[in-house]
């Protein structure tokens, strides 16, 4: 017998008891006003019991767990022109979600204003996937838009195709050698650029210790504020590049934290973006 049936049985027994009491009072010739008053108290008791049961039933209803989305992207170096499989594994608690209403992948290249949406197909066991061929080198932001069971989740990750830093370096070299000084200034990569980046790493860098990376950026001698600053970090001799978003800590000052798990020499490419401005400068640090 479940809890609700048990409560209903108790209420029925309570009502029977009320009727028996009323019958005994009537047989004894007690005044009807007193009987009516007693009956009212007993009815209030029944209603209170029903009310308490309803409140407890609402409390007993469990709040559904949030859906979780594991966005899975290929690891390792990707070459331009390669077909890439994007996957989103959707779960709710310990249950895989196989009835998602909609799963899409949004793809936007760094610095771009337009994005592409890809419909995902359910491959089974809560995994939804789509395939995309990346023809150009660059850094792409991949966002999985998942709607399931009246909830929405949209995690994002970065996908690096080729070596975008090297590509930008070649474009910068081509612009500065073949283009005019005015053209180079417009792109923010020529010798006439008015942007200066002062990199500071604080104290001596040590392995497995949290490091504060800080840059002071000026444009035409004034602090550059409300810009998008990203640190592109990689260890010499390795192909894996990591991108870290920096937060504005003051006028023209941007900071981020990172812990280096290995000692050695690292390259840091500071990307500066604001409107049509896109500047980047390289720095070298040593972790002991």
UniProtKB/TrEMBL annotation:
Positions of region (Disordered): 165-194
InterPro entries referenced in this protein's UniProt entry, alphabetically: Ig-like_fold, YtkA-like_dom
Bias type Basic and acidic residues, positions: 166-192
Domain YtkA-like: from-to ranges: 67-145, 194-271
Superkingdom to which the source organism belongs: Bacteria
Pfam annotation, one family: YtkA
Name of the protein: YtkA-like protein
């Amino acid at each position: 017998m479940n809890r609700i049936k048990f409560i209903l049985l108790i209420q029925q027994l309570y009502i029977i008891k009320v009727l028996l009491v009323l019958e005994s009072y009537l047989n004894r010739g007690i005044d009807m006003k007193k009987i009516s008053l007693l009956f009212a108290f007993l009815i209030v008791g029944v209603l209170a019991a029903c009310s308490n049961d309803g409140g407890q039933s609402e409390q007993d209803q469990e709040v559904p767990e949030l859906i979780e989305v594991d966005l899975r992207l290929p690891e390792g170096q990707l070459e331009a022109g390669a077909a890439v499989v994007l996957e989103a594994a959707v779960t709710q608690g310990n249950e895989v979600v196989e009835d998602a209403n909609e799963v899409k992948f949004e793809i936007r290249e760094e610095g771009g204003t337009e994005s592409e949406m890809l419909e995902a197909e359910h491959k089974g066991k809560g995994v939804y996937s789509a395939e995309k061929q990346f023809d150009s080198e660059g850094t792409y932001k991949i966002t999985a838009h998942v709607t399931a069971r009246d909830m929405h989740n949209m995690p994002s990750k970065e996908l690096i195709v080729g070596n975008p830093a090297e590509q930008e370096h070649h474009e910068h070299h081509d612009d500065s050698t073949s283009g005019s000084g005015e053209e180079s200034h417009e792109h923010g990569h020529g010798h006439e650029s008015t942007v200066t980046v002062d990199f500071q790493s604080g104290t001596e860098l040590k392995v497995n210790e949290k490091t504060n990376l800080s840059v002071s950026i000026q444009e035409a001698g004034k602090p550059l504020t409300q810009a998008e600053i990203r640190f592109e970090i990689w260890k010499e001799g390795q192909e894996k590049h990591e991108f870290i978003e920096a937060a504005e800590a003051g006028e023209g000052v941007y900071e981020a934290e990172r812990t280096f798990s290995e000692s050695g020499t690292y390259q840091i490419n500071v990307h500066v973006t604001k409107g049509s401005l896109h500047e980047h400068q390289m720095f070298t640090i040593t972790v002991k």
